[in-house]
Amino acid sequence: MLKFRLAGIVTVLLAASAFADEAEPEYLRDRGPGISTSMFGTYIKKGELLIYPFFEYYQDHNYQYQPDEFGFANDVELRGSYEASEGLIFLGYGLSEKLVVELEAAMIHAELETSPSDPTPIADEISESGLGDVQTQFNWRWRKETASRPEIYSFFEVVYPFNKNKDLTGTSDYELKLGSGLVRGFKWGTLDIWASVEYPMVENRASFGGIGIQYLKRLSPSWKLFAGVEANQDEVEFITETQWYVSQNIRFKFNNAFGVTSKATDWAPEVGVMFSIPTK
Question: Tell me: the pLDDT tens digits for 103-143?
């Protein structure tokens, strides 16, 4: 019985005929007909379930912090050395041709070596582990891309408060983000440009949430390349990613993010395997 069940799962994941790409216009060659998501170079179709377990590592030799964030009466900005490893799971589902819903959750271990010039009695090293960010996102397609005009979409993200007593890894209150973007396919690749505003409820004010310029190129049925720049105020990073499709329904993602400005994380590599499961 177990053998038959395993065979059925493999058949769903690997059978190209179950979710075959239809003949598509050239402007959809890189991304297909799906809706943009928070995962780099990833678009979800109606009735498609994406399951993406992945691992991410962070290293930052000039991590910015303030002692009052850790309960000490000093709001001076200091720099320490930060390192973290994170195991995450991403789920995305295409509810319709217009709406995609996402869920992402993380378990994280983080360490901060505080600045030698910190005047407070803060510990030389702070270490925390446990549940990291838990968030949902809703992506709405306003208008499909055509041969003469780009696709228009919006997204709404909610980060939930967990582990409020953990200053390094916890989330103290709800964090909301609202943004919109454009997607346009060309012969030389596909551009996805977006901007957003954010509202951390602990700060009780809205602010600029960031801007991103992303490029995706399909080299063959097995390989895609991604590059992008994301900026959030004075934090700017450059991202690269290689996607290797071992089958139509399974791909490996190899990602690197590099800090361009001093307040951005120096280096954040990511690796994972993404499963695409048709449900309709």
Answer: 999 999 999 999 999 999 999 999 999 999 999 999 999 99
The H or E element containing residue 9 is: helix 2-14
CATH superfamily to which 2-278 belongs: monomeric porin ompg (2.40.160.40)
Place of tokens 């720099």: 79
Long-range pairs for 212-218: beta carbons < 8 A, 24 or more residues apart: 212/181, 214/40, 214/41, 215/189, 215/190, 215/191, 216/30, 216/31, 216/41, 216/189, 216/190, 216/192, 217/30, 217/188, 217/189, 217/190, 218/29, 218/30, 218/31
- The domain ranges of the chain are 2-278
Its pTM stands at 0.89
Radius of gyration, alpha carbons of the chain: 20
